[in-house]
Amino acid sequence: MSDSAPILDVRALYKSFGHLEVLKGIDLQVKPRELVFVIGPSGSGKSTLLRCCNRLEEPNSGSIRIEDIDILAPGVDINAVRRRIGMVFQSFNLYPHLNALGNVTLALRKVEGKTREEAESLGIQALTRVGLAEKAKSFPNELSGGQQQRVAIARALALEPVIVLFDEPTSALDPELVGSVLSVMRELRESGMTMVVVSHEMRFAQSAADRVIFMDDGRILEQGPPEQLFNAPDHPRIQEFLRTIQAH
Amino acid sequence: MLDRLVDTFFNWQVMSEYLPKIVEGFVITIQLALAVVVSGIACGLVLAMVRSFRMRPVNFLIIGVVDVLRALPPLVIIIMFYFALPTVGIKMSAFVATWLALSLVLAAFSEEIFWAGILAVPKGQWEAARSTGLTFLQTLRFVVMPQAVRITIPPLTNRTIAITKGTALGAVVAVGEILYQAQTAYSFSYNPSPLTMGAIAYLILFIPVVYFGRWVETRFAWKR
Ligand SMILES: Nc1ncnc2c1ncn2[C@@H]1O[C@H](COP(=O)(O)OP(=O)(O)OP(=O)(O)O)[C@@H](O)[C@H]1O
Ligand SMILES: [Mg+2]
Predict the structure, then answer these.
(1) Domain B2-221 is in which class?
(2) Are the Cβ atoms of B134 and A111 closer than 8 angstroms?
(3) Local structure of residue B99 (DSSP, 8 states)
(4) Host domain of residue A150
(5) What single DSSP character describes residue A6?
(6) In a domain? residue A133
(7) A207-228 b/e (C-beta count within 10 Å ≥ 16 → b)
(8) Nearest Cα residue to A219 out of A102, A44, A73
(9) What mean pLDDT do residues A100-114 have?
(10) Which ipTM was obtained for this model?
(11) Closest residue of B to A139, CA-based?
(12) Which tens digits make up the pLDDT trace of B72-131?
C-alpha cells in the first residue's frame, strides 16, 4: 500500500446510546483502493461504526474525515457528504414502489439534479456493473435476494462514491445466493473501489481483504493482513471467535 | 293496502312536485361532500407530515387537537360553529359551519391513518434514502409517503365514506342538502314520499362510493 492520504480517517471515535457506551475510542484509516474487513462478536459496535461514518448515527466525540472533509464539522453539508459515501445494508432496503432502475436513479435525479435521460443512462450503467441491466424494469418483489442486494449495490455505485460501506451484505441471503453478491464485490474491489466490509464471509476476507480488523466491545482489539489475523492472532479471544464462526 | 303504501311512500304527484328541490339538495350534498373530502384529507396529510418531523411541542398540539376532534360527535361541532361562535363574533353560513366541522373531523381521522402509514414504513427505507444524500423532506416525499399512502388507502376510504355521510347533519342547521330538502318537503306536503326520494338520492350518491371503497380495498389488499 502506498502512503497516500486516507479516504476515510476516523480518530478517537466515541459513541453512546444513553448509558451504553458502544464505541470506545476507534482509530481507523482506510487508504484509497483498500478493502478493510471488519469482524467481531455481535454487539461489538461494527454497525454503529459504519453508521457513524455517514452520520446515520451521531458520534459523541472524535473526528471523521472523508477525503479532505471533516464530516462532523458544524455546518457541513451532510447530504453532499453522503453522496460520496455508498452504503449497503444487510436488509437491502430497496424502495418497493420503484423498479430497479427507479431505485438506482432516485438520488441521481433528486440529489444530483440530473434529467431523467441522464439519470437512466447512468442507472443502466450501474445495473450493468452488477450484471442486472436486463432487470431494470423489475420491482424488488420480483427479484431474488441476491439480485436485490446487487441492485442496492448499483444504487450506491450510481452516485460514484469515493468509498462504499457494507454492513453484512450477505447475511440475509440464502447460501446459494451469497456467491453472486460476493463476486460483484470482488469486481468492485478489482476496479479500485475503496471499501469497508462488515461480514462473516471469512473466505472472501482471505482472498479479497487487504486488512482485517477485529472489534470487541467497542474497541479495535487487533488488526492485520488476513493471513496473520486468521492464522496467528495475538489474542486468544480472536481464535475463540473464529472457531464459533467456523462452527456454522 | 298496497295502494295505501304506494300512496304514502311513493306518491307520484308529491314526488314530481318536490323532485326539483331534492335535485337541488343532491347538488348541494355533492358540493359539500367534495369540499369536505378535499380539505379534510389534504389537511390530514399535511398534519401527518408535520408530525413526522417529531418536534415535541408541535406533536403534542397535533395529538391533542386530533383526539378532541375524534372524541366529539360531529353534530356537536357543527352546532358549536353555527350557534356558539357567533356569540364571540365569528359568524359563518350553515354550509361553511358544516363544511368546516366535517373537514376538521376528517382531517383528524385521516391524520391518524396517514401517521400510522408513515410509521409502518420500515426505518431502513429512511436510512437507505438518507445514505444516498436525499434530504429529510425528499425522503418523506419520494420514498416514505408513496409507501405510506398505499397502506393508507383502504382504511382512509372507509373513514371518508363514513364522514361524508355526515353531510346529512347539515340539515340541523338548515344547509339545503338532501335531507333538509326532503324534511322540508315532507312538512309542507304531509306526505313522506319526499323522504323516500331523499333516501333514494343518498343511495344513488353513496352506493357507487361504497362499491368504489370495496374495489379499492381488494385492489390494494394483494399489492405489496
Ligand atoms: N439505536 C440504538 N439504540 C440503542 N442501542 C443501540 C442502538 N443501536 C445499537 N445499539 C446497541 O449498541 C451495541 C452495538 O450495536 P451494533 O449494531 O453496532 O453491533 P454489531 O457489532 O453490528 O452487532 P451485530 O453483529 O449483531 O450486527 C449493541 O449493544 C446494540 O444493542
Ligand atoms: Mg451489525
Answers:
(1) mainly alpha
(2) yes
(3) H
(4) 94-160
(5) P
(6) yes
(7) ebbbbbbbbbebbbbbbeebee
(8) A44
(9) 95
(10) 0.93
(11) B224
(12) 999 999 999 999 999 999 999 999 999 999 999 999 999 999 999 999 999 999 999 999
Please state at what angle helix A145-157 crosses helix A116-129, rounded to 10 degrees: 130
User: What CA–CA distance (Å, rounded) separates A105 from A112?
Assistant: 10
Q: Output the ligand 1 site: residues, CB below 6 A.
A: A 17, 20, 22, 40, 42-48
Which among B135, B142, B224 has CB closest to A96? B224
Q: How far is B80 from chain A (nearest CA, A)?
A: 44
Give the distance from CA B130 to its chain's centroid.
35
* Minimum-distance CB partner of B138 among A80, A83, A110: A110
Query: Which residues neighbour B80 within 8 Å (Cβ) at sequence distance 6 or greater?
Result: B101
Task: Specify the residue with its C-alpha closest to ligand 1, atom 3.
Answer: A17
A76 in a structural domain = no
pLDDT tens by residue, A154-167: 999 999 999 999 99
Q: What are the tens digits of pLDDT across the range A83-99?
A: 999 999 999 999 999 99
Residue A131, sorted as left (phi over 0), alpha (psi -120 to 50) or beta, turns out to be left
Asked whether residue A129 is domain-assigned, the answer is yes
